Amino acid sequence: MLNNIKKIIKKKLTLETPELIFSNDENGNKNLNHSQILSFGNDNPDKIFYVIKRTPGTGLFSNVVFVLNHLLIAEKFGFIPIIDMENYKTIYSEKKKIFNTNNSWEYYFNNVSKFKLKEVYSSKKVIITSDKFFNFFEYDMESNIFQGVLNKYLKIKSRFNKIIKKIYKKSFKKKTLGVHFRGTSYKQSAGHPFPATPCQMINLVKKIIKNDQITKIFLSTEERKYLEIFKKEFPDKLIYINSCYRSNKNDAFKIYPRNNHRYKLGREILIETFLLSKCDSFIYLNSNVSSAAMAFNLNKNQKRYKIDNGFNSKNIFYAMFLWHVKKNLPEFLGGFKKNIKIHSST
């Protein structure tokens, strides 16, 4: 199927901007721009399908935000959206089927349409999106503009709801602080927020434990060293998912150390994000995971503490070293603050 699709796409354009969907005629009326429409057959002539793809994509919730932006477009123009991460592979795609599907979106979420891909690709009118994350897209999943499509379309598989409820019931019986502690690649990500240093994070956690009368700490981190630090500092309070893949290198998508590893990476961050959303208090910095946890808003009374270390350089070379330099510099020479003042929001 994919080869036939690509042959057609080579002859035409995929959607580059929403403005290309319609054009104005000589009377100023908006008409559908047919140069953006692909035809794969004669089925469903009264419908326009909007195929959302992103290949190879990036992190799970970056892909989710990308999808939400395109769902807004589909809603605006009355298209029927469907997500194709089967013919267009993502970094989470496995060679073998997971839960009887090759569509990596459907590993974790229900598809957004009742139509099957096979039916879409035999239809008369199909628009296929670009992989670009356009500069006019909204980045923050908790933005109010997403509430409608998020509630309507974003449904996680029931199996994950059961796992999340089971973990929460077993381990979150007391007042819990959720900590999303980014490490590894985030320290070198050009143009991204600087993550906390271990010193900053430990000091901040201790303050919030006292301030919010915290009994347990749920830690979400991809860095193995950070987990070991928390085990040492908070041995009687720490909750974490032991099976999650962690490393001190940025190698999660570069190696394949376990069966269905790429699927499991998505499953793990999905479960951790929902658990972070349920915590009584939450320490975070701007990231897609934190944004998703706040968007799900599963604890309406959650106190939130944002870490703001500023942003890394947009220069890729400088960005590789700047976090490490600022971590070791004294504050008066431009280093990070050792102690972060706590300001909560709900």
Low-confidence stretches: 9-18
Q: List the helices and strands in order.
A: HEEEHEHHEHHEHEHEHEHEHE
Query: According to CATH, what is the topology of the largest domain?
Result: Rossmann fold
In angstroms, what separates the terminal alpha carbons?
48 Å
**CATH class value of the largest domain:** Alpha Beta
- Tell me what portion of residues adopts beta-strand conformation: 5-15%
Number of alpha- plus pi-helical segments: 11
Overall mean pLDDT: 91
Structure description:
By secondary structure, the chain is of the alpha/beta class. It folds into two domains: 152 residues, no CATH class; 188 residues, 3-Layer(aba) Sandwich (Rossmann fold). It has eleven helices and eleven strands. The protein has a six-stranded mixed β-sheet with strand order 8-7-6-9-10-11, with helices on both faces. The protein has a three-stranded parallel β-sheet with strand order 4-3-5, with helices on one face. Helix 6 crosses helix 9 and helix 9 crosses helix 10. About 3% of the residues have low confidence.
